[in-house]
Amino acid sequence: MARYLRIFNFLWKLRRVEHALIGAWKTMKPNCITSHSFTKLQHAVKLQLLSTLRQCQVLWNQMNHFVTNLQYYIMFEVLEVSWSNFSNEMEVARDLDDLLAAHDKYLHSIVEKSLLGERSQSLYKSLFVLFDLILRFRSHADRLYEGIYELQTRTRASSLSSQDKNRSRRQTSDKSSEPGSWLNDGRKALEERAGEFLQNMGQELEAISKEYTVLLEGFLSQLPVQQHVDLKFLFFRLDFAEFYSRLHPGS
């Protein structure tokens, strides 16, 4: 039963990380149709906005590539293959002892291939640190786009007619009453705060990107030396274009 708990905890964590990346993508996707709202901002602020958005999207692509290929490996190279072998052994089992042996072999195969075995503890810990970093990225992406949507709202409001402005102020009175809200500021103050916000978010995303690169390279460097052949195949899936291998050709 303990092995089942370890397997399900791992699968649940993997699903949670996948869900976080999907949620981040749903937050990021609508932004492609809102860029026209920022045409009246200063050129430097617009460049900073585009740079931060690109930085966030590139980091999301890298994380999504890793999680998608890892999930494919777990689902099709581990669970499906192990179940197929278990089903074949159940059909030829002659007694209960054969069934128990086949079941034990089935669980052992999943545990070893899923980095849950005793010989893969360092890989397992590195993987969960990567998972936690991806979840932290999700919270940063949410903060970034919440700020962008608030900036978009304020930029649109500044372009409305005086009548529309009054209506907009009434609709957003709950937000404008918050201390430090951008909706209380003029255009100049808005652009200054937007530039400061984007700069801070860019620095935080850069720090996450560097940490992610170091952790991922450390994780990948351990895969080729694993004894189980399927873990070496996982390395091939994650680095099929040899992108990470070329970063450190001597390793």
From TrEMBL:
Q: Which residues form the Gamma tubulin complex component C-terminal domain?
A: 1-244
Q: Pfam families from the xrefs?
A: GCP_C_terminal
GO function term, MF aspect, one: gamma-tubulin binding
The record's Gene3D superfamilies line, in alphabetical order, gives: Gamma-tubulin complex, C-terminal domain
The UniProt entry lists the main location of this chain as: cytoplasm
Annotated region (Disordered), positions in chain: 159-185
Its localization reads: Cytoplasm, Cytoskeleton
* Ranges in coiled-coil conformation: none
Q: Which GO terms describe its cellular component?
A: gamma-tubulin complex; microtubule; spindle pole
Query: Organism's domain of life?
Result: Eukaryota
Annotated GO biological process: cytoplasmic microtubule organization; meiotic cell cycle; microtubule nucleation; mitotic cell cycle; spindle assembly
**Keywords assigned:** Cytoplasm, Cytoskeleton, Microtubule
Question: Member of which family?
Answer: Belongs to the TUBGCP family.
Q: What is this protein called?
A: Gamma-tubulin complex component 3
Lineage runs: Eukaryota, Viridiplantae, Streptophyta, Embryophyta, Tracheophyta
